[in-house]
Design the sequence.
């Protein structure tokens, strides 16, 4: 393989993982934008989505499309339930309490699933071929595999739908209003509770889609798959500017590319270290991220 | 109102506390003699976890920040002590050569152990400064995530540094093996006492009050002339130092170190102890570290459920009693004695008023 084709294939890899990170980062960013909570459990929603897909496809032998819909629905519901049970009672509590609760929820999901399904990975490679088995395009000695194309197209579509939802619909307007000023939004007759739940639902649905796309690339589910994925997506959200939707997309692609580059030069064991190093540099140089807004603290 | 109440003078308070510590030490040694090695191991683990929880409490409870990389400092300290002890000519206490002076060998052995503990603390404290200076510029969630990042980087580096530099330094994933098992119940106990004493004394000094004022309101503290950055880094470093000591004790307790022991999970485990006990209460940290360490060891069936239960406890405590079980209450024997003296010495109190 020539150098050029290596570079192109690594770029495609980076785009593929980057678009998954971007989808997950969007969930972090939206939730952070609206209730200023770093939702640690977001990564684990992906894990639950993957397990739901595994249950449907491997255990119940459902049609792939049905399974995918069920997986996305499960993630969405889970996100809303977590918000109602764990975060709503703490909305006026100190931020630290909310953050610790989020860590608790994340650990509950991870360890609960480990207890129920065991720590081993659930293989789905044969089941996922129904989704990933499509034509691939090759040009100039490089192949663009079907899963990569699917991932990139689906994530771009999802982002387009999300942008439309946030910018053009009434619900999106409510979301933007609540994230601007919760109290004022309530006075204007916006139901804050419903809006926050809706935000969690949208973010979690994106996480569900992310779970399916992740399974296309790595067809196995295990209880801790969400934590690293979630953390990296969070890094992406911070990099792009937390609370900003286009920022999350940019951040996701940058993180995916950086990982692909590190792997390409043969340092794949340092991948996680590099991602966190990026985070630290960003937080020190420009804590608001690429597209973030500056918020000055008032007394 | 305190004028007509009897108070114990400071020297007597020190004497009471010293007597209590000695009493606890003697009691512990008597108990250890009667216990099987399984239970002494649990006792040591309890001690190590108490040091970890009390040290994290400095950063979380007193300073009011949420670092998620405490296990990273523990790892740094553990590896520093492990590498140091392996490099030193440790006398083999079980099989002394013929004619060797047993007392001198013991002295040499303990000297190296103390040196290793100090070294571990210092190395961890240096890392605390290196990480604290940039990280403490941030607050809340950002601080949590940046310390998490640093903790993960420490783990990744410990895992891979050998293959990059070609050293036999940390031995990567297979772990640093055959570290002398120097930890005993009494030296763990001494470390626990020193940790609690130092942290208590720092917190009762003007530096401690400065740290508490940052927790209460950083902007107000700064406008009162408190050098917030300095005190934040100081508290963070203090916390890291004792985490390093705990790591060194852990290394000499298990005898083998693997980087993956010190992941994100470990940091959260320590955090659960602090949060459950009450952020800002040393007694709370000690009690919850004891219970949460001993319980899974005693109830083995419980071990499988441990992490699930931890997380449920964490969520429930946050929803129903965010200040933790003990709040910021701390126990003081002298205060208790004063209460008794004032209650049962009612007449004397009256006399004091007349005078």
Sequence:
């Amino acid at each position: 393989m020539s150098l050029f084709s290596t570079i192109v294939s690594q770029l495609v890899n980076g785009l593929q993982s980057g678009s998954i990170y971007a989808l997950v980062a969007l969930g972090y960013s939206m939730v952070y934008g609206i209730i200023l909570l770093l939702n640690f459990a977001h990564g684990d929603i992906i894990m639950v989505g993957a397990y739901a897909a595994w249950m449907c496809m491997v255990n119940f032998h459902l049609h792939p499309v049905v399974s995918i819909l069920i997986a996305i629905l499960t993630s969405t519901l889970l996100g809303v339930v977590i918000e109602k049970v764990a975060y709503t009672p703490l909305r006026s509590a100190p931020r630290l309490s909310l953050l610790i609760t989020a860590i608790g929820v994340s650990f509950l999901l991870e360890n609960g699933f480990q207890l129920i399904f065991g720590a081993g990975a659930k293989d789905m490679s044969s089941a996922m071929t129904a989704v990933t088995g499509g034509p691939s395009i090759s040009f100039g000695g490089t192949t663009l595999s079907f899963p990569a194309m699917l991932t990139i197209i689906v994530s771009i579509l999802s982002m387009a739908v999300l942008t439309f939802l946030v910018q053009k619909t009434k619900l999106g307007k409510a979301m933007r209003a609540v994230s601007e000023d919760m109290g004022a939004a309530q006075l204007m007759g916006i139901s804050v509770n419903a809006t926050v739940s809706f935000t969690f639902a949208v973010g979690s649905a994106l996480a569900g889609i992310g779970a399916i796309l992740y399974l296309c690339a790595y067809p196995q589910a295990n209880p801790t798959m969400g934590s690293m994925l979630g953390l990296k997506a969070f890094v992406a959200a911070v990099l792009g500017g937390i609370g900003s939707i286009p920022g999350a997309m940019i951040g996701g692609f940058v993180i995916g590319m950086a990982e692909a580059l590190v792997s390409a030069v043969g340092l794949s064991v340092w991948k996680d270290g590099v991602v966190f190093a990026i985070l630290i540099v960003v937080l020190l140089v420009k804590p608001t991220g690429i597209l973030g807004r500056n918020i000055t603290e008032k007394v | 109102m305190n004028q007509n109440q009897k108070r114990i003078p400071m020297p007597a308070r020190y004497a009471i506390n010293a007597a209590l510590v000695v009493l606890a030490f003697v009691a512990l040694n008597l108990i250890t003699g009667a216990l099987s090695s399984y239970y002494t191991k649990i006792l040591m683990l309890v001690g190590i976890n108490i040091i970890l929880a009390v040290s994290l409490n400095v950063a979380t409870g007193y300073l009011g920040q949420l670092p998620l990389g405490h296990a990273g400092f523990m790892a740094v300290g553990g590896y520093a002590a492990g590498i140091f002890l392996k490099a030193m000519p440790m006398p083999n206490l079980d099989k002394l050569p013929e004619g060797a002076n047993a007392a001198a060998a013991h002295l040499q052995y303990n000297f190296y152990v103390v040196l290793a503990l100090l070294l571990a603390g210092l190395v961890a404290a240096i890392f605390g400064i290196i990480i604290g200076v940039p990280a403490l510029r941030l607050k809340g969630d950002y601080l949590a995530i940046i310390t998490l990042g640093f903790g993960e980087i420490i783990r990744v580096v410990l895992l891979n540094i050998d293959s990059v530099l070609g050293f036999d330094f940390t031995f990567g994933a297979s772990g640093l093996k055959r570290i002398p098992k120097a930890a005993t119940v009494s030296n763990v106990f001494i470390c626990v006492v020193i940790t609690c004493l130092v942290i208590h004394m720092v917190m009762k000094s003007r530096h401690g009050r400065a740290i508490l004022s940052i927790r209460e309101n950083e902007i107000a503290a700064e406008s009162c002339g408190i050098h917030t950055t300095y005190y934040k880094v100081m508290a963070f470093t203090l916390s890291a130092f004792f985490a390093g000591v705990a790591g060194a004790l852990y290394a000499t307790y298990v005898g083998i170190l693997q980087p993956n022991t010190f992941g994100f999970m470990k940091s959260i485990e320590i955090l659960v102890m602090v949060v459950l006990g009450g952020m800002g209460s040393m007694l709370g940290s000690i009690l919850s570290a004891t219970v949460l360490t001993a319980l899974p060891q005693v109830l083995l069936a419980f071990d499988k459920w441990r992490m699930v239960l931890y997380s449920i406890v964490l969520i429930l405590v946050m929803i129903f009693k965010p200040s933790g079980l003990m709040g910021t209450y701390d126990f003081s024997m002298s205060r208790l004695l004063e209460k008794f003296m004032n209650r049962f010495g009612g007449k004397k109190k009256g006399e004091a008023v007349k005078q």
